[in-house]
């Protein structure tokens, strides 16, 4: 019986392979050309002094010059500062909002989710234009007016190296957390009711339920958001590019921006490729550490 | 939700709690929405230089002069919108078609090398885009020599790994029995794809379409790198050029930003469900 069944199955599945390759053909070509080839090429270019006609290998010169340059270290430090200041806050904010949304009616939940998501549909360029004016250094600037009400003096937000990084961080705090909020809400809805019921029989308070049920149950979600958040944050440079250009005095130069400048301002493609590979390695290590230490009891 | 003790405590306490929650949520909503409100509201001001005005967060004038000013900046300003529309539409359509096909193959057909190939594809999602940026630029500009063309804007995003992953995840949940019985009745794989898989995958296809369109409408760096004349630029690149050429014109800049963002706002409000669903399709493991 079994043999006959698998025979029929085999006959039915005959020719499926050819179809499958047909279905993935274009995806594979696009992938090979625009992802796989560039990655391999980046590896090669990173050991070359790139010239459009005839590059020459220069060994590890590119890498050596990166480790010698103070700027790369500074950019790495800035990236780290930015990540530490933005990612945990984003997680806490979206977790808090998701919890607060839960007791509301369905329509109110949807409305709030839509509101918090909205800034994410506006382009980064449009938002950077708006924030540029919010940070207008004149006393009439919106943010300066606001802190003026609190009795704090005028700030040259983006123009001074003491506030420029904070300005980019503040912008990230007040931009869209919609994605994380929605993911947290979905995860909260997925927690089994019986846990709460059991806890209530034992007379657990809201905070006890929070600590012993919600936070452990949401650990995989938090880990997911943490890892993707850190990876994303390490690549961030659009706002820095559009709002400060990395300045003043390189106070907002992040690794992503440094790579961009090296490649498309100074046209040192070899060095830029080397920088990007170091960045990839750092991101890989950080993601690995996060999974190793936080993912211990997380099941997938 | 039983996280909150809805049946415990008196009604007044519950009412107070919910009021505090709503007030907090509204305050956060206000902070999130302020930049967008400020952008749209200020875009209706007069196109005068910033030194001559002081900003207000309350609506004052209502004129379209700043919009006219923005469009007058370049004879190609309408073309920017058209370019963005063309690029985003083509990339959207190709992604939906090719990612659906590939997602089905990876999710539902057994073929040699399936696991390895899919793992290779997924590995790409781990690579920061800075790594591919420079070689991709060299490939398009120096090797293919197609800079400043629609091909240059479209080809690299013809089908993304993320969309293939999304499609595969969704299709894995379609029961095999349906596909098997279709096969018994002699349906070809192509027929199964178009007559069974696609109708069942409408949601994920819509999500892919919307998110892909939005991403490509909003993308800035790639078009900025591979276009060098105004007639081939997209609205985001045009907006950036406008900004650098008119650093003191506050209201027109806001008008430009509004123009670049409004199509997405309209799309978002009309297809909100898919936007909000799209976020969780790929992220939460069921």
Automatic annotation (TrEMBL), chain B:
Which SUPFAM superfamilies does this UniProt record tie to the protein?
Answer: MetI-like (SSF161098)
Domain ABC transmembrane type-1 spans what residues? Answer: 81-271
Q: What InterPro entries does the annotation carry?
A: MetI-like, MetI-like_sf
Q: Which GO terms of type biological process are on file?
A: transmembrane transport
The source's superkingdom equals Bacteria
Coiled-coil intervals:
none
Chief subcellular location equals membrane
* Entry keyword Repeat: no
Subcellular location per UniProt equals: Cell membrane
Topology of the protein relative to the lipid bilayer: Multi-pass membrane protein
> Listed GO cellular component terms?
plasma membrane
Q: Which UniProt keywords apply?
A: Cell membrane, Membrane, Transmembrane, Transmembrane helix, Transport
Q: Where are the transmembrane segments?
A: 20-40, 80-104, 116-144, 150-171, 249-269
Which PROSITE patterns does this entry report, sorted A to Z?
A: ABC_TM1 (PS50928)
The family assignment reads:
Belongs to the binding-protein-dependent transport system permease family.
Quote the protein name from its UniProt record. Carbohydrate ABC transporter permease
Tell me the organism.
Paenibacillus paeoniae
